Amino acid sequence: MKQTSLFDAWWRNSMTLWEIGFAAPQVIAHRLQRMALAGPRPGLSDQREFTRMGQEKAEAFAESLVAMGLRMWQGQLASGATVLAHDMRPWLATMAEGMKPVHRRVTANARRLSGVKHRR
Prior knowledge:
The chain is 82% helix and 0% strand. It is mainly α.
């Protein structure tokens, strides 16, 4: 486990949350507009995108849960449970692992969807 300062861990997590907070509304706006334009009979590409919306959320949640659980287990093995009460770095490292799948997907979606033209 790589040792980082408390500030470094806090800063990285803050930046990750900022990127998620910036990218997620872009993705939501794009998809809501796409749903509105698709109407009651969406085309095949719209159906794929709408299916992807649900699947990726479930996958990101599961990956985050596993990553944070593994990190907690590693932290407890390495330093014992008492360290968690005195040192925030294991908690911040756990949070960072949990954000990775969500961050990866939401920023990738923002990049991918920013260049997509809407079907009218």
